[in-house]
């Protein structure tokens, strides 16, 4: 039987600043139990959303109807080591997936710096890592299995004659069906050599494209009110992993990166005028570090400091100009921002609602410490992103609507046609999808043909 929890209380995201009180929370352990939950939702006239591990910063997963969580659907279903393919259930976390792949001598070619998300949540929101030649995580999905509103399953694949349903499901924003399984393209396990080092900000901006081209993975952080870039380069090497000692890893990843930084953030929240001075102190203390380890252990970092975030994908050539404008904005308005701005590069892909659809991109992410007002800062930054053709990360804060987003995505109407075909009754909607995707369109004849 499904693990059902009626009137199960409040669901909250990781940051703790988005919550909902669904009429029911269900934790299915199989496709059959997902279908049964959808049948109950239909009988009750409820809309349905699926929550992963709560690492989105928006209300994308919130529901006032029925909420499904897939933590019980976390199994590895099949591994084809020779072909480099793995099929997993949608509720497996990236951390668990990485461990399972390593046991088979495999890895994902690229990852973000957080590994707590479920694979379904990561691909649905176009979660990404960094790499000028590498697209986001959803581009590694060769097939996506959906449980549709009527309880039937459908596998959408890169081998289909009509690719649009597959390209829509790769970044479905939770609005097509329940992602019950994913087939991922993997690569042989590899070692990364990671180097964190400070560098002059202006020099880093001038060499942004060259640094991206010269490294497998390049990104940097910059604290407002400073002129230093905290750069991070990760490159493949032939040497075997050489993990840090547990004591060193704890000192670097927990004590310095989390506990010490948290103390600075608390000080800034208590005394906002000190934030410029505190940011300069944090930057001086950051120093440099180096590691050589299994790829996923280098990609992922521990995040213990709670915050909220907004992130935009820009045409790559606009990235440094937009960043300069953001830094100037903060100083001109004396905004109290104790968190660094993160800048990354991601290659174009073809998923219909991918923020990097059809264009090589740079990402700019802004953050605010938990408990501090973020809206004026984020609204002002978003205006800059709008002026540079920005597209928001689907799992992070923004103030866009369907009306403002439609013109930014060349394949917007193709996605909406697939949505009308797979979920014609709008079962997988919520306030977020109403706002950013709009209502499900009436099925035109072309869309009806897809479903037959």
Structure description:
The longest helix has 25 residues, at 246-270. A hairpin with a 5-residue loop joins strand 10 (141-147) and strand 11. Among the domains are: 3-69, Uridine Diphospho-n-acetylenolpyruvylglucosamine Reductase, domain 2; 191-402, Vanillyl-alcohol Oxidase, Chain A, domain 3 (3-Layer(aba) Sandwich), CATH 3.40.462. Helix 10 runs antiparallel to helix 11. The chain has 15 helices and 21 strands. Helix content is 32%, strand content 25%. The chain is globular, with a radius of gyration of 22 Å. The model is unreliable at 1-7 and 444-452 (pLDDT under 50). The strands form five sheets. An eight-stranded antiparallel beta sheet has the order 17-14-16-15-19-20-18-21. A five-stranded antiparallel beta sheet has the order 7-8-12-10-11. It is an alpha+beta fold.
What is the CATH architecture descriptor of the domain at 191-402?
A: 3-Layer(aba) Sandwich
Mean pLDDT: 94
Radius of gyration: 22 Å
Helical content stands at: 25-40%
Q: Quick one: overall form? A: globular
| CATH 4th-level superfamily of the domain at 191-402 | FAD-linked oxidases, C-terminal domain
**Major sheet description:** 8 strands, antiparallel
The span between the termini is 32 Å
Number of E-type strands: 21
* The first-level CATH class name of the domain at 191-402: Alpha Beta
- Widest sheet: strand ordering: 17-14-16-15-19-20-18-21
SSE-based structural type: alpha+beta
Number of helices: 15
CATH-derived topology of the domain at 191-402: Vanillyl-alcohol Oxidase, Chain A, domain 3
Strand fraction: 15-25%
